[in-house]
UniProtKB/TrEMBL annotation:
The keyword Membrane applies. Residues 276-380 form the Transglutaminase-like domain. Keywords: Membrane, Transmembrane, Transmembrane helix. It holds the Pfam family DUF3857. Residues 64-226 form the DUF3857 domain. This is DUF3857 domain-containing transglutaminase family protein. SUPFAM superfamilies: Cysteine proteinases. The chain crosses the membrane at residues 650-679.
């Protein structure tokens, strides 16, 4: 009985979505932009074998319409694939999609390729694996018989703005691409005056006013392709970008947010009971904050269903409590409501997980946020930040880890600008590895104790709670087998989890059948190579030595590694120390030898000083990395004839080791186990807060 009803509902949803896609004439208000069919692409600048002859994006604010026209030429075979598909996205809850043209120009002849029966629709849902469903629909047309030299022209418009914006307009336009563009333009028509800001460009808007309508125009010709560089920070905006907004200041955006995030309904009995239990079971304010956070994080599952106004407006706290699921807005409002009911100051706060520090350089807008957290002010006046979408977080209320978001828009009537989100935690991982070498063989016993702190502890706690012990042990064994050959486990991996201190310990013990390998350079010599695996797995040597953009670094990032090698016989050892105090990282290595105990101790410390290297400092950073590269490995070798031994530092190429992907990687099994968690943890970058 239920299946037919579900099928009917599904059919109707797709039918209604399809009915919102039509073929019409181009709007009368647009500016007719011409293209040059004989334009020649700059040499060595084609990406995907395509030359864009014209791209124009035009918005009429008062009509709530957006128009796009694209004209591109297939210059190489690879370009055929690029221009043979037309895709347009829209939200069926408040928008209609109208195709105007899909034409192929071949030898000066125009061939119409736009037919209603060729338009297909499908739900976009690119973040479904992260439990994010935004309700958008993709309409796409596959163009048949496209050849080299053909010019494909398409245009369409989308009617309807999200009503949650309360008639306050803001948007952005990108004026260059990874493809060369012969002509590109952006137009905005608005009865009200607008503010705009250029990023990475000195272009000035051409402003005209006709019939009471302001017409803003940005136009460029012969725009070269830009090169996207490796390891560019997510917050760095490389394109020439126009930011347009009707907001005069951030306090107007705060007023908008306060309006849609405020609910006047009385709290439900279920919610009141949950709050009462927290107050009864926790005597101090700090304990109540932490208990409420744990409840929202772990008892209310994450699920984002955010089509239409749901992309911006949270559900009422009573509804979230009843359904026991919600997105970041829902969970933040519920958490803040619970604290407010207990007399604790708390405010939902909008953030952007990618833009971070760049957020303060942008124009005020309600559309640039993709996540929501909570600001709390305790009884001592201390400001605390919490992310209710995280789970399994340890620590007290005063030291709960919050990701590095940098800036947030606090929905507090006493605020008038962005607030700075400060966090002083280091996210350290500290590893203690002990190799006990066999006296009459090539094997060794290996004990590894890895301590995870703060955010890293939260991360590992979730990994172990969401995977079986058998699977974890199997994958860890696979890792050591790949690196050392025959390996046997001396004991199952064990963990110790101190949730109050937020420290997580993983203990492993193995027997390695053979840890030595014959020397390639010297006959009758065996080598034992020692690496700080946890550190090297997070380092990489830049491959591009000339940069135009900053170089991203993991931040905060602190690694300590202590390696103890218990030898079977005495050897000659020279103590060593290497310190690199760079503007961008600090590295310290010390080795010492206890001749009586026949033990070598290797101690490594590494810390990133910042989250990026600016272009001006890249040469210095690279040179310091080369120095680090030359001092990060340690080699012990034994001559089988004379039975004498010595040690010295060995410079391994980070690029080579990482390329080989053997001993420097963190356990392959752990990588497999945490991939799903990483995706869920990081992939929140939708167009709206969710």
């Amino acid at each position: 009985m239920y299946k037919p009803i579900a099928l009917i509902i599904l059919f109707l949803s797709f039918y209604l979505s399809y009915c919102q896609v039509s073929i019409t004439k181009e709007p009368s208000w647009i500016i007719k932009e011409e293209y040059n069919p004989n334009a020649v692409a700059p040499e060595n600048s084609l990406y995907g074998g395509t030359h864009v002859l014209l791209y124009t994006e035009q918005v009429h604010v008062d009509r709530e319409e957006a128009y796009i026209k694209n004209v591109a030429k297939a210059v190489e075979y690879s370009g055929i694939q690029t221009i043979s598909s037309v895709v347009a996205d829209y939200d069926p809850s408040y928008q209609e999609l109208r195709f105007h043209h899909i034409d192929v120009i071949r030898n000066g002849k125009r061939i119409n390729r736009l037919n209603q029966q060729d338009i297909q629709t499908a739900r976009r849902e690119t973040n479904a694996e992260s439990y994010i469903y935004d309700g958008s629909i993709s309409a796409f047309v596959n163009i048949p018989d496209v050849r080299i030299g053909d010019i494909v022209i398409y245009s369409y418009s989308v009617k309807g703005f999200n009503p949650i914006q309360k008639n306050k307009f803001s948007t952005s336009f990108v004026l260059n691409s990874t493809q060369p563009i012969d002509r590109i333009s952006a137009h905005v028509f608005s009865k009200n005056p607008l503010h705009y800001k250029m990023l990475n460009s000195d272009l000035v808007a051409d402003l005209k006013k006709r019939g009471g309508i302001n017409h803003y125009k940005w136009f460029q010709k012969n725009v070269p392709a830009i090169l996207m560089e490796e390891q560019t920070p997510s917050w760095y905006i490389q394109n020439e970008t126009v930011l347009v907004t009707e907001y005069d200041s951030w306090d107007q955006v705060i007023d908008w947010g306060k309006n849609i995030f405020t609910f006047q309904e009385p709290l439900s009995q279920e919610l009141q009971q949950a709050i009462s239990e927290i107050e009864t079971n926790n005597k101090t304010e700090g304990e109540r904050i932490k208990s409420a956070l744990s409840f929202v994080q772990n008892e209310v599952r994450y699920l984002s269903i955010s089509s239409g106004i749901g992309g911006y407006k949270p559900n009422p706290p009573n509804k979230v409590m009843e359904q026991r699921f919600g997105d970041c807005k829902d969970k933040s409002v519920l958490f803040a409501t619970m604290l407010n009911q207990m007399g604790i100051e708390a405010h939902p706060t909008l953030v952007n997980t990618s833009l971070k520090q760049e957020l303060s350089n942008l124009t005020p807008s309600s559309k640039i946020f993709d996540h929501c957290i909570v600001k709390v002010v305790d009884e001592n006046g201390s400001t605390l930040w919490y992310d209710p979408t995280l789970t399994d977080q340890g620590g007290t209320y005063a030291n709960t880890y919050t990701p590095d978001y940098r800036y947030g828009l606090v929905l507090d009537q006493n605020m008038s600008d962005l607030d700075t989100i400060t966090d002083f935690r280091s996210n350290m991982i500290e590893t203690f590895s002990t190799f006990t070498l066999e006296k009459d063989g090539l094997g060794a016993e290996l004990e590894v104790r890895t301590h995870y702190y703060e955010g890293e502890a939260d991360f590992m706690r979730s990994v172990f709670r969401n995977n079986s012990k058998d699977l974890i042990q199997q994958e860890l064994m696979s890792y050591y087998t790949d690196n050392y050959g025959r390996v046997s486990s001396l004991a199952p991996p064990t963990i110790e989890d101190d949730t109050i201190k937020n420290e997580f310990l993983l203990l492993e013990r193995y027997h390695l059948d053979s840890i030595w390998s014959p020397s390639v350079e010297k006959t009758n010599t065996m080598n034992l190579s020692i690496f700080p695996n946890g550190l090297i797995s997070n380092l990489s040597m830049p491959t591009q030595l000339q940069r135009l953009t900053p170089y991203a670094l993991t931040y905060p990032f602190v690694r300590k590694e202590h390696i103890k090698v218990k030898l079977a016989e005495a050897i000659r050892v020279k103590p060593e120390n290497v310190t690199i105090n760079s503007d961008y990282f600090y590295y310290d290595f010390n080795s010492k030898y206890n001749a009586k105990e026949k033990i070598i101790d290797l101690d490594y410390y590494y810390k990133h000083q910042n989250d990026h290297v600016p272009v001006s400092g890249f040469d210095t950073y690279y040179n310091d990395m080369v120095k680090l590269d030359q001092n990060i490995g340690y080699l012990i070798f034994t001559n089988n004839d004379t039975l004498t031994s010595s040690t010295y530092s060995l410079g391994y190429s980070l690029g080579t080791i990482i390329g080989i992907g053997i001993i420097i990687a963190i356990p392959v099994g752990l990588i497999a186990l945490i991939v799903i968690f990483v995706v869920r943890y990081n992939k929140r970058k939708t167009a709206n807060p969710s």
